[in-house]
Amino acid sequence: MTVAGQTKGRRWRFSVRPTPRAARALKSLQLPAFWLLGLILLAGMARLLEILRADLARFPVATTAAIVLFALYAVPFWLFIASMDFLEREPPLLMATAFAWGGAVATTAAIPGTQALHDLVAKLISPAFAATWGSAIAGPTVEELLKALGVVMIVLVARKQINSVLDGMVYGALIGLGYQVVENIVFAVNAVALRGQGDGVGPVVATFFLRGFLAGLWSHTLFTALAGAGIAWFVVRTDKPLWWRLGGLGLGLGLAWLTHFVWNSPLFADGLGSGAAGVLLGMLGKGLPALAMVLALLWVARHREAHYYVAQLARLRDPRIATPGELQIMGHGHLRADARRYGRARCGRAGERAVRGLQTAQARLAVELSRVERIFPGDELLVHCRDEVLAQRQRLVDLGHPEAIVSPMRPAVPRVVVLGILFAIGLFLLIWQAIRTMNAA
Amino acid sequence: MVAHRLVRNLAGAVAVLAALLIVVFGLPALNRAVPTDRSLAGRHYDVGAGVSVAPPPGARVDASKTRPGADRATVMFLVGDVRYLIVVQPFAGRIGDAAEKLRTKIKATQGYQVTGDEGRVSTAGGLSGVAGGYTAPGRSGRYAVFLAGPHSIEVTVSGAQLELQRELAGIDDSISSITYGGGE
Question: Are A123 and B34 in contact (CB under 8 A)?
């Protein structure tokens, strides 16, 4: 077998810092940060339950509806975030911890902090200034700090799990998602109270639409993904000079603050021009640059990480493990999906399952290869991973579809591009119609 | 080496906790330490959303509870220890609905009870509304609500019984001075 450490010297060698073999989840129990994190999470959850219990006592139907709606809303976000890192999946417990920090700690701590900072702006400058710019200043300053502290806590508890910038984006996005979900629930119940017409679900549905769809794509999930990327850059890129790492950290945190500031700011609050199109333009003008920036960063981070792991398999030069065609598609989510579709087209569901099995086994072997400096013939874990790949390969051979590649008849325009464009058009039409309806009302 | 790593980990965790505590307790403490009031020096006060009012003598604005705005606005005046709050917000119903909404809001605070009957009230500028009273532990209160264009104007006044009685005449004059849209 080949020496995995020989990947050093290649272009992507510093993009990933693999988790060492010796790293064990239970070792976190020895860390003071682990126990402090537990205490902080408990305190946050107790406070959150207190808030929700008071809401449930006042508006049981509306609060329950808000919790159910926004919990369901979080599911596709969670699945998307989890799938961002196909090759080196994050531990579910750590992902849940990140979500809990955002939902229980950051939200409950932000309530007094944001209010106090908003008040200070009103006192030190003027109430009129605070009414206009208070949310833009206090919101990002307090909330982004609290959410970024969550990423720092994850680093302190499981530093070895932050292997790449992509990992930081995953944990940051999950903290932001937790924050977004709980904040939306609180806003929905506040809308019910403000309306003053009893325990109705009307304001909850309106809030769900307004904050979930109109503002949901460019909200906390996105802001904190930027902060997470900055923190992960600082942690992972130890090959860079300190000032360069600090620059990346500052850039990530600064961009998180800036995108949040722009979204909360009164700029284009009434839209660009008149009518629904003007409002839509104003909203897109504030939200789209941030979304585009995060998607671009995500693309770069994913491909850097993917190239690193693909290089691990490529060094083996063994077509039974991964053929050149499979190596070519391994780093691209949409190509992997195309390969599964091709497997299904040729061999039915069994073919799709077998291709998925091979891809998963290859990813696991690549991750395990990255964790050792040298490969020894008696390395049981590596042998097990290699045997799993070979077993999955045999399944494909038995089905008469020996290679998990994309169809040669694949359309020139990738399916993911077509679906993305259709999704964007559908979403814009939905938002535009919603704004027109609200204007008419 | 291991001990050094643990100390570094502890220091990092304590730093995170300290930052958290600064946000949760430090910022509110700083906020409380900064004086809240701004002297009005007898000028006519623009509440926001088209509403203005002549503040009572000696009133100061609690900047932390004041939110001017084009569509909805809030101002909190402090007259000694008496709190005089005006809230302007969009409202599409009738005066009875507006009064019911305000009563519900008052009663939502534990220990607050609306007392007695409501009576008609009007401002010098011609706005008409209803007014009533409420009690709270150790405090008494008055409330009034007006409809003005697409807005409701909610007024609540609360303070210790004796102090409220002393300031009430000036506050009543102030309520009477509320105008909407330039004296509509």
Answer: yes
Residue in A33, A40, A128 nearest the CB of B68: A128
Name residues 72-131 of chain B within 8 A of A (Cβ). 73, 75, 100-101, 104-105, 108
Which residue of chain B comes nearest to A101, CA vs CA?
Answer: B20
In this complex, the residue of B9, B34, B36 whose CB is nearest that of residue A156 is B9
ipTM exceeding the 0.85 mark: no
Q: Is the pLDDT reported for residue A7 higher than 50?
A: no
CA-CA-CA-CA dihedral for B6, B7, B12, B17, to nearest 10: 100
Chain B contact set for A123 (CB, 8 A): 31, 34-36, 63-64
Phi-psi label, residue B41: left if phi above 0, alpha if psi -120 to 50, beta otherwise:
left
Torsion of the alpha carbons at A146, A149, A154 and A159, rounded to the nearest 10: 160
Instruction: Give the count of beta carbons closer than 10 Å to the beta carbon of residue A437.
Output: 11
pLDDT, residue A372, reads 82
A441 at B interface, C-beta within 8 A? no
| Residue appearing with tokens 């961009």 | A255
pLDDT: is A414 or A36 the higher one?
A36
| Residue A271: per-residue pLDDT | 60
Which stretch of DSSP H or E encloses residue B137? none
Of A40, A122, A193, the CB nearest to B66: A122
The pair phi, psi for residue B78, each rounded to 5°, is -115, 120
Cα nearest neighbour of A146 on chain B: B20
Highest average pLDDT, of A133-147, A277-291, A326-340, comes from A133-147
Joined together, the tokens standing for residue B164 give 């409220």
With beta carbons under 8 A apart, name residues in chain B contacting A116: 27-28, 30-31
Q: pLDDT tens for residues A417-439?
A: 888 888 888 877 777 776 666 55
Q: Does B21 touch chain A (CB under 8 A)?
A: no
**Which residues of chain A make contact with B101, given a CB cutoff of 8 A?**
196
Q: Please give the order of strands across the beta sheet that includes B37-39.
A: B37-39, B60-62, B73-79, B82-90, B151-159, B139-148, B128-136, B113-122
The confidence band for A5, taking pLDDT boundaries of 50, 70 and 90, is very low
Task: State the burial class of residue A122 (Cβ atoms within 10 Å of its Cβ: 0-12, 13-18, 19+).
Answer: buried
Cβ-contact A389, A333 below 8 angstroms: no
Q: Residues near B152 by Cβ (< 8 Å), separated by ≥ 6? A: B88, B89, B90, B91, B98, B101, B145, B146
From chain A, the residues in CB contact with B20 under 8 A are 40, 105, 109, 146, 149
Q: Residue B163 — pLDDT band, cuts 50, 70, 90?
A: confident
Nearest to A153 by CA among A84, A235, A221: A235
CB distance A393 to A347 below 8 Å: no
A113 touches chain B (CB under 8 A): yes
pTM above 0.90, yes or no: no
Question: Which of A58, A113, A119 comes nearest B24 by C-beta?
Answer: A113
Query: Could you tell me if B64 lies within 8 Å of chain A, comparing CB atoms?
Result: yes
Tell me if chain B has a CB within 8 Å of the CB of A115.
Answer: yes
Dist CA B94 CA A264 (whole Å): 33
Between the alpha carbon of residue B36 and those of residues A127, B33, B42, B74, the distances in Å are 11, 9, 18, 15
C-alpha–C-alpha distance, residues B70 and B82, integer Å = 27
